[in-house]
Amino acid sequence: MFKRKKNQYPFIVLSFIHISMLIYTLSKGKDRKRLVSLLLSNIGMAYLFEYIVFNLFQSYIYKPKLLKNKNFDNLLGAIFSQAIFVPITALFITSFKLGWKVKLLFGLYFTLIEKFFIFLGIFNTNWWRTTFTATLIPLYFTLSDFWDKHLQKKTPIVLFISVFKALVVLNSTFLFILAVFRKLRFGLGFFHSWREHFILAPIYTIIVAFFTTCMIEKHNFIKILSLRILLDFFLKRSRILKSNLPIMLELVLHITMLFVAKGLRKLIYGNRND
Predict the structure, then answer these.
(1) Angle at 262 between CA 72 and CA 141, to 5 degrees
(2) Which pTM does this prediction carry?
(3) Which site from 108, 114, 128, 166 is most exposed, i.e. has the minimal number of CB atoms within 10 Å?
(4) What is the pLDDT of residues 208-217, one digit of tens each?
């Protein structure tokens, strides 16, 4: 599955840099729960954006050469970008209350990285333009600042959406791992292509994350579990979902995700009287 090639080294170096930034940010932060909540929200926002421009409209192609399957390798490159590089930088900027000059500087930083990746041939663009990156990255950092303010104020709609985005992140990442190990695949018709999978799997994740977020507040665990099982049953009967997981293991995984959802809600909402 894994094959050592030179394409991976820029991704590894950048991962080391940004994970170091994350460790430093959390070590200096006074409210680590809020920072983790913000990080998950930032990743969730990036994931939802990436679903539109990357999964649906195939804006660009990553080539980290970490996985043999080109579809998985491409998506893994996107995960590096949207789950590590950009969200952690946004958290760093927001946590230390850095202004527009720093935002623009990091916007230039990611623009140069993109240009360098294109030069190395490990990132190719279809219709995407580097000017989009230079424009949108500082705006993303500003949205991170806005979200953090409302996490501190405990604005109800922001807390709700934060739980939703966090569940999208964890469910999407989990489904990606299962797909890499060929345990499930979404699609239409007799043959399920990976192109179909990466369009349908996020929709499944969004649906499950939304009704879980809506119902977890009232501790409707039986209802949530029942809905998840019924949804899986319907998708299997419709041949939209093919799964190699044993039924009991699927049940265990659903129950585990419910406990995770409960923990995420407690993390993000915290003590409403604080």
Answers:
(1) 55
(2) 0.93
(3) 108
(4) 999 999 998 7
- If DSSP codes are grouped into helix, strand and coil, which group holds residue 242? strand
C-alpha torsion 201→203→208→214, nearest 10: 160
CA nearest neighbour of 250 among 198, 174, 191? 174
Has residue 106 got a pLDDT over 50?
A: yes
| Burial class of residue 220, CB neighbours in 10 A (0-12, 13-18, 19+) | middle
Helix ranges, the chain (H)? 8-28, 32-50, 70-79, 86-95, 100-120, 130-153, 156-180, 194-216, 221-237, 247-269
Residue 55 one-letter amino acid: N
Total Cβ atoms within 10 A of residue 53? 16
Task: List CB contacts of 64: < 8 A, sequence separation 6 or more.
Answer: 7, 8, 11, 73, 76, 77, 80, 122
Angle at 108 between CA 102 and CA 114, to 5 degrees: 140
Tokens describing residue 248: 């009991």
> Under the phi-then-psi rule, with left for phi > 0, alpha for psi from -120 to 50, and beta for the rest, what region is 193?
beta
Contact 182, 231 (CB under 8 A): no
Say how far apart CA 4 and CA 237 lie, in whole Å.
Answer: 40
Element (H, E) at 185: strand 184-186
Angle at 236 (CA atoms; ends 235, 240), nearest 5 degrees: 60
Let me know if 215 is exposed, middle or buried by CB neighbors in 10 A (0-12, 13-18, 19+): middle
Length of the chain: 274
Question: Which DSSP string do the residues of 66-93 spell out, in sequence order?
Answer: -BSSHHHHHHHHHHIIIIIIHHHHHHHH
pLDDT single digits (tens) 181-223: 999 999 987 778 899 999 999 999 999 999 999 998 777 788 9
